[in-house]
Amino acid sequence: MFRILDKYIFLQLVGPFLFGFFLFVTIIAIDPLMSALHSIVNENVSFWVMFRWFLNRLPQDMVFTFPMSVLLSTLLVFGRMSKDSETTALRAGGINFYRILLPVLVFALIITAISFFFNEFVVPTSNQNARNIKRYEIMKLVEPEASENSIMRVSDGAFAYARKVYEKSGKMEKVLLEYYDESGNLDRRVSATTAEWNGKNWTFKQVVEQNYQNENALASPTSRPELVIAGIIEKPEDFARQSKKPNEMSYTELKDRIDTYERTKFMDTTALRVELAMKTSLPFASFFFAIIGASFGLTNSRSGAFIGFGVSMLIIFLYYVLMSLFTALGKSGYLPPMLAAWVQNIIFAFAGFHIVSKINQ
Question: Percent of the chain, pLDDT > 90?
Fold first, then answer.
């Protein structure tokens, strides 16, 4: 019986979820669509260019539609089940509401996983493509000759910083390499006025090298005109691409960027840590929205689809207002980054389980 019940509720959720997904995607597509039409009509930008920009611009907003669609589907399904007395029959048969929620939570976890992978593998690339299309094909901006303030961890383990990177000519200016031991202590530092890529290796020029034996030992600087480090296999374009924004990076890329900045004390990473935590908290909103939706669906047993849609929009509005507020507080340093990204999920989790416990009594 339980397997039949789980399958029944699970399949009931699929249709409304797909309906909600396409509905919300259509709604959020209005703004970029109007922007694309404005560029085509008033700025004589080709239809193909704007079509490509529109397709790449859309995924960053689609991430928000996953939890919204889960909320709407659970509201509609459990509202209908309550209206048709199906939940009353289940309760009369000795099945409590926590057991009824099991297929809902499984469904929500599947959507959470899909949302996370979509945000991890689709959104960063599409955001980068959309930015490049807008800059170089719509606004006709000239690609900068040099990228500035590139910092990354290179293949031989060093943290590399370059003041300027000339991707086309394969050169860098004001380069600093720092090597740390397993304890996190600075072991070696190499600074160079310039660096040139010959297709296989980097040649550093006007080099000053300092080796640190231990924490109390003074560094002994050694100057040399040139130094070839074969262990650094990164190409000029790898250094130039370090200007990507957080929404153009995957979770792993952003975490590596934060670790690099903190190790080298390059900049404050509070805002970046909030962005990193948001890459997990937003997909998990689907899980908590499922609980809220199911519980509200039962408490509004006589509501129809229109009322269900209105309730879902109200809950969504409240959630994203809280998310914007706590994210801003986190980036300003008033809240720890992880808490700032997850506090709205925590609030909705407590609210959802509180309503569920009331219904189950």
Answer: 44
CA gap 205, 163 in Å, rounded: 15
CA distances from residue 350 to 31, 106, 110 in whole angstroms, order as listed: 34, 19, 21
Q: Is 34 exposed, middle or buried (0-12, 13-18, 19+ CB in 10 A)?
A: exposed
Closest by alpha carbon to 107, among 67, 135, 139?
67
Q: What's the maximum distance between 2 C-alpha atoms anywhere in the chain?
A: 86
Long-range CB contacts (< 8 A, 24+ apart) of 107-110?
A: 107/10, 107/13, 107/17, 107/70, 107/290, 108/70, 108/286, 108/287, 108/289, 108/290, 108/291, 109/287
Q: Which amino acid is at 31?
A: D
CB 274 within 8 Å of CB 340: yes
Locate 159 and state its tokens: 């943290």
User: For the chain, which residues make up each domain, given as ranges?
Assistant: 2-136+272-360, 155-233
- The residue among 86, 233, 241 whose CA lies nearest residue 162 is 241
Say which residue the tokens 């801003």 belong to: 328
Q: What is the pLDDT of residues 109-151, one digit of tens each?
A: 999 999 999 999 999 999 989 988 988 888 876 666 677 888 8
